[in-house]
Amino acid sequence: MTTATAAPPTVTPRRAVGRPSLLRLTAVELRKLVDTRAGLWLLITIGAVAAVIVVLQLVYADEAAQTFPNFFTPSLLPVGVLLPVLGILSITGEWSQRTALTTFALVPRRERVVAAKLAAVVLAALASVLASLAVAAVGTLIAGATGGAGSWRVEGTLILHAALFQVANALMGAGFGLLLLNTPLAIVAYLLLPTLWSVLGELVRPLRGPASWLDTGRTMEPLFTADLTGEQWARLGVSLLVWLAVPVAAGLLRTLRREVA
Amino acid sequence: MISVDHLTKRYGRHIAVDDVSFHCRPGTVTGFLGPNGAGKSTTLRMICGLTPPTAGAATVGGQPYRQLPNPGQEVGVLLDASAQHAGRTGREALTVAADTMGVERDEVTAKLDLVGLDATAARRRVRAYSLGMRQRLGLAHALLGDPRVLILDEPANGLDPEGIFWMRGLLRDFADRGGTVLLSSHLLREVEAVADRLVVIGGGRVVAQGDKDDLLSGAGTRVQARNQQALRRALDSAGLDVVSDTDGGLLVHAEAEAVGQAAADAGVALTELRPADTGGLEQLFLSLTAGGPTTTAEPTTSGEPTAAGEPTREDAR
To answer: Where would one find coiled-coil regions in this protein (chain A) (predicted)?
Structure first.
């Protein structure tokens, strides 16, 4: 901005006008995840689900099975169902609440907003893994004190795989949100399409081969273990390309071009 | 500071904005007037980079809006007061914006005070706000980055008379300190009191623009004749600028002498010839936009509002 506009009494002395950094935008998007009741309750629910799973195991699981990894892994699946909803809401909320109008007026480079949203969702997914680890730790402590196995032995790779599982889930949700830009549509499509695909893969014989490469329900299952074979990684990669990378890329294009009204 | 050049927006076969050009200078308030559906909001959204134009371009402070590094500190934008997350509190909505542009949190409180939202109101969720409160919040949002330019779409909607008076003072003061204001309205009265310049849009096209005072005096001369069509022809052929007013007379942008001469030359007997009343701008506004809010598919046969003027007179009787 040139300062040469010499209207004698300017409205305000100019501050240095800098483009908001991605870091700042990510912090804003994280704040937006929690500053509404819907977002806050979703996060509380995610934490509560992990806690309930641990309590159930303390009550019903065999004492020998009350180990840290056994407390940790079962919480991943229900949390993994809720994280995509968080991802979807963070994107579609802008359109359903029409805040896109103010958001994109403040940051017209929309790809930066989208990048910040994806980063915030990834951080939320990682935080959910920390929450799962924390409640599992509490469960293990209680189990140790009440006669359960209370074993702490856990493979580091299992935790890494769990983190990858949750990040992928959250990003898949965000991808559906970006592509459909409508909350109910994105949630229904996200929950229904992969399930439909699983059912079809079971029912229709010629689809069985492709399904084992494309059904994320199947390809992500090995992430609950500490070791994956090369082929399992390949299947996982292909399914995530189709269900994560493609929706995010296509959705980004749609978001960049869409008229904001 | 705001430069709009040949902006056009087409939706399929419908032309929402048709070759609109105007400029807003620092220190002035520009009123962007037109009936609902005339293309005001679409034009403002195109200026702010939210709607891609079919043709033409707009700049703010010499740059296309989308290339401004931190637009919130250059341009305050209020396009729709209802476009706030219903679940956020007023204060939270401003805090999110302040964080985005890197403005001190103190500014949030300062701007809430400025627009008259007290601590209790700031703690409430936007869902519970009246339209007037949302407008005040939207104005606080627009002013948050201490911009030099304000772009406001129908900011007086939902404000009570006291609120409208207050907002006029605020905008006048902003412009007097060197700021640039562009505000739209479908009510002439609302804008007349504060604007220096007017841009009148109807059916997507700019139908009049200029200094408010010029447009006011430009209301010119009101004239009637028993044979209105003959009078119209006479005035047209004399090269005078004529529009039908709402009462079946004609408004001519010329002195009474020129009008009378043109009528006499054509042998048309006048039944009325006088300077247009002070409400002339309003009549001008109404008649200029008489084409209606939508651009009809067929190009208006003669392009003249005569056809619209006749039924108006019938209605008036």
So the answer is: none
Q: Which residue of B has its CA nearest to A7?
A: B178
Given its phi and psi angles, is residue B176 left (phi above 0), alpha (psi -120 to 50 degrees) or beta? Answer: alpha
φ, ψ dihedrals at B92, nearest 5°: -65, -40
Report the complex ipTM. Answer: 0.86
> What pLDDT does residue B312 have?
33
Q: Pairing relation of β-strands B180-185 and B149-153?
A: parallel
- Range of the structural domain that residue B197 is part of: 2-210
Which chain B residues are closer than 8 Å to A35 by Cβ? 88, 92, 96
Q: Pick from A7, A102, A259: which is nearest to B52 by CB?
A: A259
The C-alpha atoms of residue B243 and residue B158 are separated, in whole angstroms, by 33
Residue B316 placed within a domain: no
pLDDT (average), residues B165-184: 96
Question: For position B308, what pLDDT does the model report?
Answer: 34
**Whether residue B170 sits in one domain with residue B132:** yes
Strand-pair category, B197-202 with B205-211: antiparallel
pLDDT at residue B278 is higher than 70 = no
The conformation of residue B125, written as its DSSP 8-state character, comes to B
B181 and B231 share one domain: no
Report pLDDT digits (tens) over A42-96: 989 988 988 999 999 888 988 888 899 999 999 898 999 999 999 999 999 999 9
A216 pLDDT tier (thresholds 50, 70, 90): confident
Higher pLDDT, A11 or B231: B231
Residue A139 has pLDDT above 70, yes or no: yes
The model's pTM: 0.82
Smallest CA-to-CA distance from A9 within B178, B170, B143 is with: B178
Mean pLDDT calculated for residue range A171-200? 90
How much is the pLDDT for A65?
A: 86
Those residues of chain A whose CB sits closer than 8 Å to some CB in chain B are: 1-2, 5, 7-12, 15, 17-20, 24-25, 27-28, 31-32, 35-38, 93, 97-109, 257, 259-261
Are B188 and B259 members of one domain?
no
CB contact under 8 Å between B102 and A20, yes or no, is yes
In angstroms, the separation between the Cα of residue B284 and the nearest Cα of chain A is: 30
Phi, psi angles (nearest 5°) of residue A25: -65, -35
Reported as a single tens digit per residue, the pLDDT across B148-163 is 999 999 999 999 999 9
- Please, which residues have CB within 8 angstroms of residue A13's CB and are 6 or more apart in sequence? none
* Same domain membership, residue B149 and residue B81: yes
Segment 119-178 of chain B within 8 Å of chain A by CB: 141, 146-148, 174, 176-178
Comparing alpha-carbon positions, the chain B residue that sits nearest to A113 is B100
Report the gap between the CA of A132 and the closest CA in chain B (Å).
Answer: 28
Tokens, residue B218: 């430009």
Measured CA to CA, the distance from residue B80 to residue B70 in angstroms comes to 20
Put simply, the answer to whether B148 touches A27 (Cβ < 8 Å) is no
The whole-number pLDDT of residue B88 equals 94
B23 and B94 belong to one structural domain: yes
Please check whether residues B186 and B229 belong to one and the same domain: no
